[in-house]
Amino acid sequence: MLDGVLTPAAGDAEAGPAVALTVRGLTKSFGSVHAVKSVDLTVHAGKFFGIVGPNGAGKTTTLSMITGLLRPDSGAIEVRGAEVWAGRRARTDGMGVLPDRLRLFDRLTGAQLLHYAGSLRGLDRATIAHRSRDLAIAFGLTASLSRPVSDYSVGMTKKIALASAMIHAPRLLVLDEPFESVDPVSTAAIIRILRRFAAAGGTVVLSSHSMDLIERVCDEVAIIAAGSVLASGPMREVLGGMSLEDRFVELAGGAGAVEGMEWLQSFSG
Description:
It is found in: Cell membrane. There is one protein chain. The strands form two sheets. The protein has a six-stranded mixed β-sheet with strand order 6-7-8-3-9-10, sandwiched between helices. The chain has a four-stranded antiparallel β-sheet with strand order 2-1-4-5, covered by helices on one side. By secondary structure, the chain is an alpha/beta fold. Helix content is 33%, strand content 24%. It has a domain at 3-102 and 171-254: Rossmann fold (3-Layer(aba) Sandwich). The chain has helices spanning 3-6, 59-66, 110-120, 125-139, 154-166, 184-199, 211-217, 235-239, 244-252; strands at 19-30, 33-44, 48-52, 74-79, 82-83, 95-98, 172-176, 203-207, 220-225, 228-234. The relative contact order is 0.18. The protein has nine helices and ten strands.
């Protein structure tokens, strides 16, 4: 049903490169705050790559630079060998992007939003209609396409936003907190669709606060804290026999954060 959307576009019948995304020496500062400090990442094609870190770690800033939403101070970003920031404007043709706290044109209906997303990517009207229908069926949105997006639930909004990011059959999906506030049923449906996308040769980069979900879904992972990569690579190698949560706490700290707070056990009254 979704072959035309989930199969990466144009030229994927040929053997693609082993590496879908390369990030080298990426930095970004806001005044005296160094949000991202010389980040290096390698994401292999056809994989789920998870990024985890505490609040303020630099995850969203890193993803914003990768997707062309924020110009880096220094460093290089390559998608399938093509430099993203080679010129004055970022090259993001091969990406589908779901930013954190994305604001949609929610006065449009679901169908109108998908048509708008397809038009921006240069698709013709017939292709947009065909792919919109397939995506609506896959995401369970068929009965809601005629309703304004402002009437959608949080889960439905995430699904229509993800469908908009996928309508042009990108090679790389970059998703910032795609499951935040999404119910378990919708989360499971989204994961099934993303697995099909990866099985067809696409690559998924996602950030999430859910350690269990990242550990369960992703093939590769990077742990980021204070703007730096503490560990990155295949999930099994990064974990070293630990759970992702335990490995994260070991690297990023936090295990001793409640030490010295014995007063909490001395109840007043």
